[in-house]
Amino acid sequence: GWQLTANVEYDPGFLNEVDLAFAPAGDGTLVTLTHHNLQRFGDAAAAMAPSLGEGWSMLLGLYQAHSATAA
């Protein structure tokens, strides 16, 4: 679960789910990340969605780069 609020503060009562799915894709693996329940961010949800997408893309890119060098 994701327990950071719109103010990027940890809150044990605030929960969003992040799912990762892995599927074969040619010679590699397709990784799909889905961040659920963004509406729980309330009024900040629409403004946060693009930033979250950019952040997850950056993080997955780092994992991809690392896995390419570790192989």
So how many helices?
A: 1
Query: Any idea what the shape is?
Result: elongated
Low-confidence stretches: none
N-end to C-end Cα span: 29 Å
What is the ordering of alpha helices and beta strands? EEH
Q: Strand count, sense and closure of the main sheet?
A: 2 strands, antiparallel
Overall pLDDT score: 91
> Which class best fits the helix and strand makeup?
alpha+beta
What is the helical fraction, as a range of percent? 25-40%
Task: Write out the strand line-up for the largest beta sheet, numbering strands in chain order.
Answer: 1-2
Radius of gyration: 14 Å
The count of DSSP E runs of length 2 or more, i.e. the number of strands, is 2
Strand content: 15-25%
Kindly describe this structure.
The longest helix is centred in the C-terminal third of the chain and has 26 residues, at 45-70. The chain has one helix at 45-70; strands spanning 18-25, 28-35. A hairpin with a 2-residue loop joins β1 (18-25) and β2. The protein is elongated, with a radius of gyration of 14 Å. The relative contact order is 0.15. The chain is an alpha+beta fold. The mean pLDDT is 91. Helix content is 37%, strand content 23%. The protein has a two-stranded antiparallel sheet with strand order 1-2.
